[in-house]
Specification:
- By secondary structure, the chain is α+β, with helices and mostly antiparallel strands.
- It has one domain: Nucleoside Triphosphate Pyrophosphohydrolase (Alpha-Beta Complex).
- Helices cover 22% and strands 37% of the residues.
- The protein has 4 helices and 11 strands, in the order E-E-H-E-E-E-E-H-E-E-E-H-E-E-H.
- Strands 3, 4, 5, 6, 7, 8, 9, 10 and 11 form a 9-stranded mixed beta sheet that branches. Strands 1-2 form a two-stranded antiparallel sheet.
- Helix 3 packs antiparallel against helix 4.
- The longest helix is centred in the C-terminal third of the chain and has 20 residues.
């Protein structure tokens, strides 16, 4: 099925309940409320907290070459956020995850003045299990992976540093593992409403590591 023909749940009312279903193309045309899910990857190893990010690579993507959560996309008709997260991880990076492998970081509504997804409810999840960058699979949406320090990436997103030592693999060089300095430009091509979601997600992840629980204030 082509992406534009994918059925999505149309949301509405004060609680944004499911009102019906439309194809993705019609949802975007009519600027209907609909759901997105994003899965962040972060784990602790040898006393260090690491993250694995994707580099967006879909042709025509306005944010191509930017780094992002490990996987994400539209929540299909009848899917839960967990259902969509598992599907997107398999489709985008070749990772098979169980339904109990995720931590719900929070959800928020976002309205944007431009782009195809004008009105969305975003569900942010954390996959906290260790991942091997060498085992990640490239796809038509993902042409690179970058492994970074969790706190360092938060500093990069907030503009407290301009470069971050990282490990990376890119499809363009055959997937060879290399050391790079991830530049601030890899995240600051996004509009502020997306960067705000990054900031909230990272704050929620850090509080989960620190306190053993998710603080709902980060997505209040």
């Amino acid at each position: 099925m082509a992406d534009d023909d994918e059925l999505l749940d149309v949301l509405g009312g004060e609680d944004l309940q499911v009102l019906g279903q439309k194809t993705r193309s019609l949802v975007h045309r009519d600027h209907d409320w609909h759901g997105l899910v994003f899965v962040w990857s972060a784990w602790e190893s040898a006393g260090k907290r690491r993250m694995l990010l994707q580099q967006r690579g879909r042709p025509g993507d306005e944010y191509s070459r930017q780094v992002d959560a490990l996987a994400g996309g539209h929540i299909g008709a009848g899917e839960t956020a967990i259902d969509a997260a598992r599907r997107e991880l398999t489709e985008e990076v070749g990772l098979s995850a169980g339904a109990d492998d995720f931590i719900h970081l929070g959800s928020n509504r976002m309205e944007r003045p431009g782009g195809s997804c004008r009105r969305v409810v975003q569900h942010l999840l954390l996959y906290p299990l260790p991942l091997d960058i060498d085992r990640m699979r490239f796809s038509d949406e993902v042409d690179g992976f970058v492994e970074v320090d969790l706190q360092g990436f938060e500093d990069l997103v907030h503009g407290r540093c301009h470069h971050l030592p990282s490990r990376s693999r890119y499809a363009k060089n055959g997937g060879r593992l290399q050391e790079i300095d991830l530049d601030q430009a890899a995240v600051h091509g996004y509009p502020d409403e997306i960067l705000d979601t990054f900031r909230r997600s990272l704050a929620s992840i850090l509080s989960w590591w620190r306190d053993g629980r998710v603080d709902p204030a980060h997505f209040a």
